[in-house]
Amino acid sequence: MSTFARSKIIVGVDYARISYVPTRSESMKDPEPITKWPGGSAANETREKVPSKIAYASENPDKLTEDVWGYGVFPGLRSYCWTKLLLDKKTCETQYDDPLLQQAVGSAIMGLPPNKSAEDVVSDYLGFMYQHCLRSLEEKMTPAILAVTPLEFWFTMPAIWSDQAQFATKRAAERAGFGSRPQDEIRMITEPEAAALAAFKSTSENFEDVLQADTGVLVCDCGGGTVDITTYTIRLVNGEKKLEESCVGSGGKCGSTMIDRNLYNVMGSRYGSAWTTVAPDRRCPGSRFMNEFENHKRDFGSMSDTRDITLRLRLKGIEEAHPSCVQYDPEEGEITLTNKDMKRCFDPVIDKITTLIDQQLKEVKKARAPEIKTLVLVGGFGDSQYLFKKIKVMCAKYGNLFPIVPHRPWSAIARGAALRGLTGELVEKRRCRRHYGTQFSRTFRPGIDKDEGDCYHDNFMDKKCKMGWMSWPINKGEILSSDTQRSIGFHMTVPKDMKKDQRTKSLVLYSCSLGHAPARWDSPGVERVGVVRFSFDDVNLKKLAKVKRGKLGSRKTFHSLDFELQVGMSSKSGVLHFDVCYEGEKCGTAEIEFERETDADDSSSNWTGRMSDLSFDSYDD
Question: Are 9-190 and 191-254+350-423 equal in CATH topology?
Answer without folding.
Answer: yes
